[in-house]
Amino acid sequence: MLVSERLRQAPGMAIYRGSVPHESCAGRFVFDSFYYVDLDEWPDFRRTLDEDRLGKIQCDTCGDIAEVKFPVIVEIASRNLLIFATHGGDDGGVESGFVAVLDRAAAMLTSVVAERARRRPYTFVHGYRGLRVLLDALDGVPLPKPAPPYAHAPDTGRHFSTLHGYRYGDLFFHYPGQRTVDDLVCALLHWSAGVTDAAEMKKIVAVAEGILRIIGPHHPWLVHELGRLYLELGEFDEAQRLLELASSAQHCWLAVTASILDATPATRADVESQSAELPHATPATVRSDVCSVRHTVTRQRPAYKDYAFWHFPEMEQNAHPSGYTTQTVHEARGLAVGYLSRYFIDESRSVFPSFSIAFGNVLTGTKENIEAVADAEPEAVRGFWWHYVLARWLGHTNEHDSLVQEIDTAIADLAAEADLERFYLEGAARELRG
User: Could you tell me which residues come within 8 angstroms of residue 128 by beta carbon, excluding any fewer than 6 positions away?
Assistant: First the structure.
C-alpha cells in the first residue's frame, strides 16, 4: 500500500518507497515499506492493520494485487513500548533483525525520535497477527484462542517457573535475558526496601556494585536501585549517572506472556484507607507505562495462550546480555551469597519476612545451579567458591588454617536438618583446603 507524502515525512515515521517489476506485465509494483510507525502520527494504523492492507502492493499498470511481509517496529509512546513484528519465526535471529530495522529506521527519523526509540523497552510478536492481538490486549481486549500455523516449536512437557517483571492487565512482561540473576536482584531489592540507615545503605551499595563489576550494568532494576541509594546518600552526581544508565538499560527485550498464574489477591485485606485494588490488578485500559508495576507470577508451560502471537522459546533459552556467562554469573552469585550469609547468618541481623523468603530462594537456586554445572563447568564452580569465601570471610580472619578450623567447627555445630547451610560451609572448606 501507499500512504500520503505528509505521513511519509512525519517525524515519527520511517517509510521507504520502492518498486519491483511485475513479471506478468511491463508494470511495476510500487510500495511503501514501513520500518518504523509512531501510532500517534498515524491514527488510522490500527484500521489499516485490521483491514489487512499493510502488506498489500499493487501493480501500477495492470492493477494486480500481491502480498508481501515487511518487518515493522511500532512505537506506542503512551505505553513506553516498541513492538517488533517479525515474519521470520523463532529462528534465533529476531533480535539482530530488530536491531537492523531500527538502525535503518533511525537514519530516516528525527534525532529526537531515534534517541527516544533507543531508550524504550521492546517486545517481539509473530507477524501482523501477533501485532494486532497485542495492540488489542494492551487496550483490554480479551485474547483470542491461538490457532495454527505456529512460527515456533510447541512446548514439550509441563512445568512451572517463577517470573519477575511487570503485570499489565492479563499480560505479563519480563526480561528473558535476566533470568539467571533475577533472584539475586530481587533479594537485594527486598533488603533495600526496608533500609533507612545510611551505614546499611552503603553495605547494599557495596554488594550491588560488586555484582555490576562482574556482570556489567545490564539489569535495569539493580542499576536503578543503586542510583536511588546514591540519591538517598546525597551523592547526586553518581546518582544521576546511574539513573541515566538504568534508563538506557531498559532498552532490551521485554518478552510478553499471558500464560501465568498469579496467587496475589486482587483486592486488599487491610485498612480501609488504602486503595480497594492492588496495583497489579489494575486493568490495562487505565495503565500507561508497561514498566510501571513490578510483580512476580508463576509461568506455566505449555504456554498455550502465547502460541502464534508472541511465543519465542528458542530465543528465550539463549537470551542473555554480553556480560552474562556461566563464569561471571556464578562469580556474581558467589559474591552476593557470601556477603548476605556473612551479614544475616554470621552476624545474626534481623530481617524482614519478604527478604528472608527472597534470600532463601537465592540459597536454594544457587545450590541447584552449582550442582547442575559442577561437571561441565568446573571453572565456574571454582569461581563461585572463591568469591563466596572472599565475601563471607575476608577481613574476618587472616589465618587460613584458623578459618578452615572455624568452618569445620561451624559444620559440626549445625543441626541435622540444616542441609543448605551445610552445603555452603562444606563447599567453602573444600575450596580453602584445595
Answer: 49, 52, 54, 55, 69, 85
Provide the 3-class DSSP secondary structure of residue 213. helix
Average pLDDT, the chain: 90
d(CA 8, CA 390): 59
Instruction: Note whether 57 and 66 are within 8 A (CB).
Output: yes
The position carrying cell 509494483 is: 29
Q: Which helix (H) or strand (E) holds 3?
A: none
- Give me the DSSP letters along 320-377: --TT--HHHHHHHHHHHHHHHHIIIIIS-----HHHHHHHHHHHHHHHHHHHHHTTT-
Whole-prediction pTM: 0.90
Taking only the tens place, the pLDDT of each residue in 394-405 is 765 557 778 888
> Pairing relation of β-strands 81-86 and 72-76?
antiparallel
CA 340 from chain centre, in angstroms, equals 24
Q: pLDDT by residue (tens digit) across 372-398?
A: 999 999 999 999 999 999 999 876 555
193: helix, coil or strand? helix
Number of other residues whose CB lies within 10 A of the CB of residue 99 = 12
Q: Are strands 28-38 and 56-59 parallel, antiparallel or unpaired?
A: antiparallel
**For the range 43-50, what are the long-range contacts, defined as Cβ-Cβ under 8 Å and sequence gap of 24 or more?**
45/74, 46/135, 48/1, 49/128, 49/131, 49/132, 49/135, 50/132
Does the bond joining 265 to the residue before it have cis omega, within 30 degrees of 0? no
Nearest of 104, 113, 173, 177 to residue 137 by alpha carbon: 173
Give the integer Cα–Cα distance in Å for 291 and 165: 8
Q: What is the pLDDT of residues 205-249, one digit of tens each?
A: 999 999 999 999 999 999 999 999 999 999 999 999 999 999 999
Return all residues near 160 (Cβ < 8 A) that are at least 6 apart. 261, 298, 299, 300, 301
Contact criterion met (CB below 8 Å) for 313 and 161:
no
Residue 281 or 205, more confident:
205
**pLDDT tens-digit readout, 253-262:** 999 999 999 8
- In this predicted structure, what is the pLDDT of residue 214? 96
> How far apart are the C-alpha atoms of 434 and 425, rounded to whole Å?
14
**Kind and range of the H or E run holding 80:** none
Q: If 0-12 CB within 10 Å is exposed, 13-18 middle and 19+ buried, where does residue 186 land? A: buried
* pLDDT above 80: residue 4: yes
pLDDT of residue 287: 66
